[in-house]
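Appendix B, example 12.
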Amino acid sequence: MNYGFLYFSFLTISYYVVFEQLRAAVLEYWPSTPAIAATGLAGASARVFTATLVAPLELVRTNLQAHGSQIAGATVGYNGAMDVVHRVYKTNGVRGLFSGLWPTLLRDVPFSFVYWSLYEHIRSMAHESNLLRKSGSATFGINFVAGAIAGMTASIVTTPFDVVKTHMQIRATIAKSEVLLTISTGSITDVLLD
């Protein structure tokens, strides 16, 4: 079975199970909470849990995708997922396996909050409009448009954090001597970006 398929299946299942449980709990224990706020809060909280849970898998995936690329003047190649884990652990310890978690959270938590809140808001507006009163139910088109608008808006806000996260994860596998070599031979821009 494909590593990517397993990774994304685990990520998706974990996220939606936690999301649905949290949304139901918020609405049950705080019934006066607007559905939009409950949905946004559940999405953001589920993302914290899931991102932390899969951070080491994300680090491995990112580094395997970067296999053979030039990083800081050194070619990094891997002999599979365990080689990535071994190199990261050897260089940075257990903490290194969670490299990039904070930028991931800075990207994913606001993304989920914005996405789910906006998605729910657009769907609520559609339900209240004459558009859905005529058809009697939410349509594929309304859900599609709500998801597209919410996704584009959330992506615009959070894309810079994805770049930072990927950079940090790839850097986690580079030996400290290579980092020092980069700093001593690189430009001030390279040092500031690190």
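The helical segments are 3-29, 35-65, 81-96, 101-128, 130-135, 140-171, 176-185, 188-193. Residues 18 and 46 are 5 Å apart (CA to CA).
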